[in-house]
Amino acid sequence: MSSTRDIDSLIDMMARLPGLGPRSARRAVLHMIRKRALLLAPLADLMQTVATTARECITCGNIGTAETCDICASEKRANGQICVVEDVADLWAMERGQAFKGRYHVLGGTLSALDQVGPETLRIPKLVDRVLAENISEVILALNATVDGQTTAHYIADQLDGRVALTSLAQGVPIGGELDYLDDGTISAALSARKSL
């Protein structure tokens, strides 16, 4: 029996996380072991707590520790706007920007015929119900600019046509971006969405 079996298993498990490969996982585990009292023990306790308390918000699909997330529970966020995102990571990215003051709806993915993901698999019917029940005035489609993301956006637009104002995020040149480094699709989208100065 190897004396490092548990440590090797921890490294293997950490290497499965996005953004970490075997080398990064080894460095992280070694660092945590060296700082056992400051990092490893508290991390293990927090992971156990999150494993037992984390849940999806029953309204929007965000991840939190209560049945209804803080965003859906806040009356200040009930401004008639819902921002539709593919997954929780997208919601968290939007929140980091601190520009959107409404509520969210997490679809749980995008429509994909190849992966056999249809509208009933996603939270699209729940979105339609929310638009009617919550007196929503605008639905902002913040879906990724992929084929599946755009297919999903068009499907949602068809489902909500005439019921609510539909908008999407602008696409094009990022702040600080240089034209020489952008792909053709991004340049084309930026040119199409140009505005007066």
From TrEMBL:
GO terms, biological process: DNA recombination; DNA repair
Key words, A-Z: DNA damage, DNA recombination, DNA repair, Metal-binding, Zinc, Zinc-finger
Pfam family name, one: RecR_HhH
Domain Toprim: 80-174
ZnF (C4-type) residues: 57-72
SMART domains given in the database record: TOPRIM
Example of a GO MF term: DNA binding
Matches recorded under Gene3D superfamilies: 3.40.1360.10, RecR Domain 1
Role description: May play a role in DNA repair. It seems to be involved in an RecBC-independent recombinational process of DNA repair. It may act with RecF and RecO.
Protein family membership: Belongs to the RecR family.
UniProt xrefs under PANTHER family: RECOMBINATION PROTEIN RECR
Protein name (Swiss-Prot/TrEMBL): Recombination protein RecR
Organism from which the protein derives: Roseovarius marisflavi
Gene field: recR
